[in-house]
Design a protein that fits this description.
Elements: H1 2-98, H2 102-109, H3 114-124, H4 147-193, H5 199-221
Helix pairs in contact: 1-2, 1-4, 1-5, 4-5
Amino acid sequence: MSEGLTIEAAHKIAEHHHHSSGSERERHLEIIEALLLSAVAIVTAWCGYQAARWDGRETYLYGVASRLRVEASLRATEGGQLRLLDVVTFNTWIGLHEQHKDSTALLYERRFSPEYKVAFDAWLKTDPFNNPAAAPGPIHMPEYRNALLDKSEDLTRQSSDAFADGARARGVAEVYVQRTVVLATVLFLTALAQRFKIRKVRIMLLLFAALLFTYQLFELAMRPRL
């Protein structure tokens, strides 16, 4: 009778130990799942934040590009008008010069813009009335500059650069949105693993989710941030 009780007690102790070990492993697994869910949720929120910031930068840069484009157009118009005025004034000067009305021609000469005057003086030094190889007019001289047109070209380049930066910002924002979708998959797999009673299936899903999450962290580390 005593021996039977001893064997029965040993079985109960073994069952209790097995149950305790299983409960301990279950708690460890639940802790891992909770930690993974928390980490993925934080990274997902951060990805959404980065996507929103890059979207804002894209909008800002496109706005800058548009503003610079308008300014470039205005400078081009003003520069073209100034060049046209100089050319018309020069044509009048030519007519007066041919008529030997030097005093009146001098008045028109003084109406040249400062930049055009520099080219005009350089053009006169080439003896254009006797030198067939001379430039047709001051506007064709290398000394000729039009600050407004130069500014327009500079603004156009800045506008193109801003637009290109905006396009790059859009690409980065799209990458963060893609990462958010993948991280949502990790959340789904982790939550799905908790529904399985079969331990091996649960662990396999959890491992796959952890590997996918680790890969996403590596990918995110390579991306620009704001």
